[in-house]
Amino acid sequence: MLETLTVQTTRRAELIDITDRIAAVIRGSDITSGIAVCYVPHTTAGLTIQENADPDVTADILYKLDALVPRDDPRFRHAEGNSDAHIKASLIGSSVTLVVRASALVLGTWQAIYFCEFDGPRSRHVHVKLLRG
Amino acid sequence: MLETLTVQTTRRAELIDITDRIAAVIRGSDITSGIAVCYVPHTTAGLTIQENADPDVTADILYKLDALVPRDDPRFRHAEGNSDAHIKASLIGSSVTLVVRASALVLGTWQAIYFCEFDGPRSRHVHVKLLRG
Amino acid sequence: MLETLTVQTTRRAELIDITDRIAAVIRGSDITSGIAVCYVPHTTAGLTIQENADPDVTADILYKLDALVPRDDPRFRHAEGNSDAHIKASLIGSSVTLVVRASALVLGTWQAIYFCEFDGPRSRHVHVKLLRG
Predict the structure, then answer these.
(1) DSSP class of A89
(2) Which residue from A18, A13, A31 is spatially nearest to A125, judged by alpha carbons?
(3) How far is CA B122 from the centre of its chain?
(4) Which residue from C93, A128, C116, C126 is spatially nearest to B46, judged by alpha carbons?
(5) Closest to C9 measured CA to CA, from C115, C93, C128, C127
(6) Residues in B touching C89 (Cβ below 8 Å)
(7) For residue A47, what are the CA distances in angstroms to B11, B26, C53?
(8) C42-99 pLDDT per residue, tens
(9) Are A60 and B77 in contact (CB under 8 A)?
(10) Count of domains in chain B?
(11) CB contact under 8 A, C41 and B68
């Protein structure tokens, strides 16, 4: 089963918790056990699994990615001015694979699934592909 | 099939080879062909595939991750003092997906599966989900 | 179904678009819907999904990875002199998981699958494992 979520981002860079929306896709399907492949069809955004208890964690991730890959590096050639976003997307990755059991995500106590916007604000998509097994 | 391994780490940061334990899970299952999704339910640890021939490789990875993301960055806000571990976990990733053929992992000559501890020592878990195909 | 591609690289570091070859593997199989796990059995190479419209994007990625992880770091211990390539491989990751629908890859408008060589030139492999679902 393949379903596509729309995520509206509101800043150039932000991490948005989409755990509940992915859990709802699973609950709405007839797949009770297997895996969920969450996939971003963009080249300046990604997906990561991180802590959702303290919002300072995602703030620190965005701060550090910016410190490592500043947007205004004069050696970037790509004319659109968003090479930093492409690089951050490749470092974070464009998909996460999750375990599904009893129609629910198998997540750690502090884990949430974050959509990582690196070149917004934009309207984005996340594909959720469920495999039975 | 879903099985959970326990990994006891002994230092703040270390890479622990868990290849043999994952191979044993596969041998103990009735799935001879498919994929193995290995998943860490933690936000300050990850999984990576790397060389196991020379221990200097994993030492160099830990050294470089520390150099890129030092623990004592005064701009980190997260009060627990382990923002570096969260960031390293997101850079490395919380899962690896492996190919299974003839009841064995399809690995390259030098490849091993490493549990990456970034905020230990702790007792950690790794979920191993097998899909037939 | 498991098929293995050979990729000949021609420089120490380069990103090679292998999208068409992976699409051909899918078209040549009897799996019309599911996932494709693409896996590199090497520890100094990886796979990433990135933009293929402007070659400056991949050039900027290679430049920045070199800036973050220079080859000649005197603190590297690994005697082969390619610790940078191992670290880049772990940051980028050794596999990508893609969605297959109607016998085709589900990719975003600008997305391509890149083989990432970090210690070439060499003859390399990419395993493509298809799972129905």
Answers:
(1) H
(2) A18
(3) 14
(4) C93
(5) C115
(6) 50
(7) 28, 28, 22
(8) 999 999 999 999 999 999 999 999 999 999 999 999 989 999 999 999 999 999 999 9
(9) yes
(10) 1
(11) no
Distance to chain C for A55, nearest Cα, Å: 24
pTM of the model: 0.98
Which amino acid is present at B87? I
The whole-angstrom separation of Cα A32 and Cα A26 is 8
Which residues in chain A touch residue C61, judged by CB atoms under 8 angstroms apart?
A: 83, 86-87, 90
Asked if ipTM goes beyond 0.90, one says yes
Q: Which residues pair with A104 in a beta bridge?
A: A101
**Span A87-104, average pLDDT:** 98
Torsion of CA C6, C131, C116, B56, to 10 degrees: -100
Domain of A113: which CATH number?
A: 2.60.120.460
Burial (CB count <10 Å: 0-12, 13-18, 19+), residue B1: middle
| Residues of chain B neighbouring C80 (CB-CB closer than 8 A) | 54
Determine the Cα–Cα distance for residues C35 and C38; give it in Å rounded to an integer. 10
Interchain proximity C77–B56, CB inside 8 Å: yes
Contact B47, B113 (CB under 8 A): yes
User: Would you call A91 and B89 a contact, using CB atoms and an 8 Å cutoff?
Assistant: no
Range of the domain at B76: 2-132
The residue among B26, B78, B96 with the most chain A CBs within 10 A of its CB, best to mutate, is B78
